[in-house]
Amino acid sequence: MEGQVRGIQRMIEEDSPCTDVLRQVRAARKAFDKVGFVILAGKMRECMSGKGDGAESEIALDDYMELFLTLT
Length: 72
Description:
- Helix content is about 85%, strand content about 0%.
- With about 70 residues, it is an all-alpha fold.
- It has a single domain (about 1-70), classed as Up-down Bundle (Methane Monooxygenase Hydroxylase, Chain G, domain 1).
- Helix 1 (about 1-15) packs antiparallel against helix 2 and helix 2 packs antiparallel against helix 3 (about 55-70).
- About 5% of the residues are buried.
């Protein structure tokens, strides 16, 4: 992802066509979204498997679910 962002920066500096830059921005955004989903899924799995501390785990799960909805 870091390489994608650097590539976008280079494209902007080189005055690449806007459509090409936007395609790369879209691809980078999808990659970031995927990472977010993977992280949240892991944390939600932890909470649901009972590895958390009861009420604290339930609060965390609510927070993760809210974050999940912002990614969709």
